[in-house]
Design brief:
428 residues, alpha+beta
Amino acid sequence: MKTFLLLLLASVAFAQSNGAAGEANAVLPGAYQLYVDLHQHPELSGHEVRTASVLADKLRGLGYEVTEHVGGTGVVALLKNGDGPTVLLRTELDALPVEEKTGLPYASKVRTKNDAGQEVGVMHACGHDIHLAALYGTAAVMARSRNTWRGTLFLIGQPAEETIGGARGMLSDGLFSRFPKPKYAVAFHDTNAEAAGKVSVSPGYILSNADSIRVTVYGKGAHGSQPQSGIDPVLMAARIVVTLQSIVSREIPPGEAAVVTVGYLHAGTKNNIIPDSAEMGLTVRSYSPEVRKRLLASIDRIVRAEAEAAGAEKPPTIDHYESTPAVYNDPELVARILPTLQQALGKENLEPGGRAMASDDFANYFAEGGVPEVMLSLGAANPEKFREARASGRALPSNHSPLFAPDPEPTLRTGIVAEAAVLRNLLQ
């Protein structure tokens, strides 16, 4: 047994250093081909039928035990390799309702109708195609090098991340009861804020919680020339929008991160008609549960108070229709994988991570499943363009931009090396 363990550790060390680049290069052509295919055929959240099928077929071809239609279009793939822990690696399946303007030869030309019946362009503007292709490359590396790890590799293709419901849907469909519950959960997300070849990670909160709120206030319709005979919901809504901005500046302690944004306000059909209702859409962000609770309570108080102050005869409706907790990188897990990443990538390519007010429902695997998590940031910007942008003080197109275009080959290569290194570290 002692001899076996020594050989195992030696092979792991080799794979994480000199052998890692060779392993990634061996699977890179297949991963790149998959990336281009997925980029050209994006699908909206909850409709990832082709994407899920392609991923499932690819993983079956590598010898994984694959289950489809978990939580909708979700994919689960298991590779059992003796006694040891179960470790989850997640990728996302969905794209965004964005018309691509990158000019790439493999740019998406897909147009479809969204759930509201509107015709929209569809694009992988958040890099989920990169995540999918990197996971496939990593899956191939792990399947070919079973002598370097022990346990069960648990891969998931998660639907509907962009609508922050996919993780919860998979959990509700028995993700951790139908399949082995993982000891750890790992995810990567690409970004143009870092050059391809770089990876960053930090402990603690890294992405915010998010709440989507739909507020409807009710007035009394009237002719625009006779406002005294109506109750104006547009004025009511305007007061609410302004007063909401005082929550962060006057109710949240300085130093605590919080955002309350009103993304839309819809009311009326004609300039000389006072409508009988107005609707607002809010996104609310913070890190800590305490600040989140305070934000939501304050929004509720302000909306109801402004409606009452306006003399509304019907109370407002406040609909909380989407939510996800904050992504919290387990500090012990981060400390464990840092030396491994330094060895696999080189210290110069591993950077401290930062916080962002973006959100990701990856957080639900800890919040609802109790599984310690770590999400790493994967640089995706062309290194030369990144240096030029830094020198000129301008920013490259960010995630969700119609111009977002990762530098695929170095991004995929680094993602595969980093994912395989982290998984081998945890699968011991």
